[in-house]
Design a protein that fits this description.
By secondary structure, the chain is an all-alpha fold. The chain has 2 helices and no strands. InterPro entries: Gly-zipper_OmpA-like_dom.
Length: 165
């Protein structure tokens, strides 16, 4: 009888430890995929849109001002040479500055929005996949070990008394 109860207790502890490790792995992998993909996509899209809009506005304004001033000065000098020396230089400088500012703002806003959306989507997908895999593996292993240890620390139920006939 004593040997039967010892064997029963050993079998119960082995089964409980196996079930605990299996549950830890299963719950860890499920939480890994769910939390990793959700957090990865959310953080990726947020960071991608923020970085995309910032980089888009900065690059758009820089490129817009550069292209606007270049085009404005070129058009101003062309008009200046066509219209004459004094009137041409005055109109050329005025038209150059006006066209430069107008073209700079227009090109800045257009390039900013285009570059912002493109960089936002690209950075969002890249950061989403990277954060997905990183957060997924980290959360999966951490939660798997935590759940395994928590479930393993739960004492097994008392074994039923052994009755012999």
């Amino acid at each position: 009888m004593a040997l039967d109860s010892v064997l029963t207790a050993m079998l119960e502890s082995v089964l409980v430890s196996v079930l605990v490790s299996v549950l830890g792995l299963v719950l860890g992998s499920v939480l890994d995929s769910v939390l990793g993909s959700v957090l990865g996509s959310v953080l990726g899209s947020v960071l991608g849109s923020v970085l995309g809009s910032v980089l888009g506005s900065v690059l758009g304004s820089v490129l817009g001002s550069v292209l606007g001033s270049v085009l404005g000065s070129v058009l101003g000098s062309v008009l200046g040479s066509v219209l004459g020396s004094v009137l041409g230089s005055v109109l050329g400088s005025v038209l150059g500055s006006v066209l430069g500012s107008v073209l700079g703002s227009v090109l800045g806003s257009v390039l900013g929005s285009v570059l912002g959306s493109v960089l936002g989507s690209v950075l969002g997908s890249v950061l989403g996949s990277v954060l997905d895999s990183v957060l997924g593996s980290v959360l999966g292993s951490v939660l798997g070990s935590v759940l395994g240890s928590v479930l393993g620390s739960v004492p097994p139920p008392p074994s039923a008394p052994y009755f012999s006939e």
